[in-house]
Please model this.
Amino acid sequence: MLRIGLLGCGNIGHIICRHAGGFRVSAVYDKKPDRARETAAISGSRAYPDFDAFIESDIDIVVEAASVGAVVLYAEPILSHGKDMVIMSVGALTDPTFRDRIEAVAKKAGKKIFIPSGAIFGLDNMKIGRISAIRKLLLRTTKSPASLGITAENKKMIFRGKANECIKAFPKNVNVSVAMSLAAGRDTDVELWVDPEVDRNVHELFFEGDFGETYIRVVNVQSPENPATSYLAALSILSLLENLERSIVVGT
Model:
């Protein structure tokens, strides 16, 4: 059974532990030891007091469920220690220098970096953009003012530009667009809207090319334990992990 090392013991980490099926969470690490011990109790795993001990433990793959900063700090040592890695905080990969560096480390170590689909659907199909030309790749996201930490009386667009620009202004709200860009092999156009009438994040994906055109609308349900987390994003990691050791893999 696949042995998971969990980096980050917040809400997503708890969901992974509670729903583990075709894999086993065997090691956990968090900068806050109390959170690591709590997660270890849920999963029956071992909480490690420091990262060096964690990465030396008997695990096959590390699942990052922490932050962009954690990816930047730990991705290279994880890969160089011969562990595959799942990156949830994909916003870290908007830095091309960092992305190229960890890709080179992964190739040298013979390891893989996995990006879950996160809070959207259709990411697998966007990979055809690396084969056939894409004419339009647009993400239109609508959020409540509270989720962005601002006030607004009416619906309005607060950002329009590229995914790699959006992270500079809204670093906690760019993961979906970055995942789209990585899948399609080109930067995603982004529109970020704020609407006081919505209480859920709404992602609208527009994808056009020689294959035809696609429109997908996703309304995310908040995680039961943390309104800041998309439940679908957490479930996408579980789906990825469950598929890693299956003999028949659909949609990759």
The chain has a mean pLDDT of 92.
